[in-house]
Structure formats: C-alpha cells, structure tokens
Amino acid sequence: SKGLGGKQAQYYSKQFHQKIESRIRIEHDLKRAIERDEFVLYYQPQVDSQSFDLVGVEALIRWQHPEMGLVPPDEFIPIAEESHFINELGRWVMDEACKQFQIWLNKPGMKDLNFTISVNLSARQLKDAGLSEFLLECLERYHIPADRIELELTESSLESSLVALDMLNKMSALGVKLALDDFGTGYSSLSHLNEYPFNILKIDKSFVRFIEHEDEASLLKAISSFAHSLGFDTVAEGVETSFQRDLCARLGVKRLQGYFFSPPIPANEIEIMWQPKPAI
Ligand code: C2E
Ligand code: CA
Ligand code: CA
Ligand code: CA
C-alpha cells in the first residue's frame, strides 16, 4: 500500500499543525488571562444520597477566551502545570472560591444551609511553599469556617514526597477537609491512603457513569465497600442516571455529583437552585 501518501498525509500534517498552533496560543495567552479577568469558576452541585438535599458544590474553572470561547480545563490546566503559573492560577481559584462562598454565606436563604465548597488543587501546588498561609489568609479574609472547605487532589498525580506530605498536613491542621479525587484510577492508592491525611474518597466517574445494569457494578461495589471499611466518607462523580443514583445510595455513597443532577453552572444559577421552594 502507499501508506500515508498524498492527500491523507497532508490532512494529518495540517491537523497536527493546528494542534501545535493552538497549544502555542494557549501557552502564550494563559499568562495574561488572570489580569485580563478571563477565568471564571463554575459550580457543580453535590446532593446527599439519602435526602437529595444540596450539600455541596465543586468549583471547576473555565477560561473565557476572547476569540476561542469557553476553553475547558483539560486544555489549559496541564499546560499551566508545566510551569510555575499553576501556582498563581491555583491561588486565584482558591481566593475566588472563598470570595464566592462568603457571598453565599451572607445570603438570607443560603446562610443556614450547611453546605461545603470543593476546590481542586494540582499536586504541583503542594510545592508552593506559602500555600497553607495563603489558604489561611483566604479563610480569614472571607470569614469562612475551615471545615466547610474541601481540597481535592487527584490520586494519579500524587507522588510520595515529604514536601507534599508536609503541605497536606499543614492544610489539614487548619481544619479543611481533604479529598482524594479520581479514586480507583491511581497506581498506589493503598500507600497514599495510609500516608496522607485524607478524609474523603471521591470515586472516579469511570466506575459510575457507564453502569446500566446491576451486573456491571462489581467494581463500584468493591471500591465503595473498600472505602467505607477504611472509614472514609465517599462521593460518587459521574452520576448520570436515576439507576446510578439509586445504586450509589444503596451502596452507602454519601454524596452524589453528576449530570443527572446538574452540570457545572455559573454561581448565579446555583443561587436559583438553592432558593427555598415555595410551600404548596
Ligand atoms: P475533576 O476534578 O475530576 O472534575 C470532574 C469533571 O467531570 C468535570 O469536568 C465535570 O464537568 C465532569 N463531570 C461532572 N459530572 C459528570 C457526569 O455526570 N458525567 C461526565 N461524563 N462528566 C461529568 P471539567 O469541569 O471539564 O474539569 C476537568 C478536570 O479539570 C477536573 O476533573 C480537574 O481535574 C481539572 N480542573 C477543573 N478545575 C480545576 C481547578 O480549578 N484547578 C485544578 N488544578 N484543576 C481543575
Ligand atoms: Ca475534582
Ligand atoms: Ca474526579
Ligand atoms: Ca479528572
């Protein structure tokens, strides 16, 4: 055969070229996006698996690029992680989430609700020496009870290092909760569970969202019972159907998150969801 000759090769090389160009563009524009105020946090609701009450939100960053539109985090977080820029971006996220939380805690209909806010941290940020002081400053500046904040770290990105462990212990000592994100997908879950001060295991969506029948649930069952037997609270992400909702509830998963309830949405839409329903 002629292999990748002629038109096809041209097609692939053009696509490749476009990829590189957009990557260079992202790298270049990313550094100015904070000062240009182009980042925004969306929030995805988490519900209690038994009462279906809204009990938390996860903050998920979006980049509103002036020409490229809404850029998803998978397209720029990995690039930010290749440089120190992730530290600046991660601090922006922490500050912004706390600022929003203070607004919610002061709203008449919302202040009595005992909900939490989850913030994603990149493992690389654990090397940002002043991070725990910065977090404390945010908590104080916005008058936020520490135990209402959850920090999520992905399992696969965590490397065993004393610096990372020390930072996690410092933040845990402030009273914030630590969640191990994408649980079940990492390589060394067991050693990390012992080593690090995690409170919550967040079961990765790949174990939840594809389940259509009971007989496809063995991994989810094993992972959740493992987590519970070690005394962890669990959150399931990727709950997309009522069957998955009911299954997770039956397995004792404490909180549920996924498109079945809501995608990530802007802060003002969260407020609408939280408005007390008028009595009928
Ligand atoms: P993640 O922390 O695992 O967040 C969950 C992702 O799953 C989100 O994608 C969310 O929109 C999506 N998702 C939620 N429910 C469902 C569902 O029912 N089905 C499916 N298929 N997907 C669902 P998103 O917002 O695109 O974020 C992707 C990743 O980017 C996040 O994964 C997280 O690792 C990273 N990320 C997002 N915001 C931040 C941030 O502020 N800082 C850092 N360091 N990373 C962030
Ligand atoms: Ca997360
Ligand atoms: Ca996750
Ligand atoms: Ca993920």
From TrEMBL:
**Its domain of life?**
Bacteria
- Give residue ranges for domain EAL: 23-278
What is this protein called in UniProt?
Response regulator receiver modulated diguanylate cyclase/phosphodiesterase
Q: Which residues of the full protein are shown?
A: 291 to 570 of 571
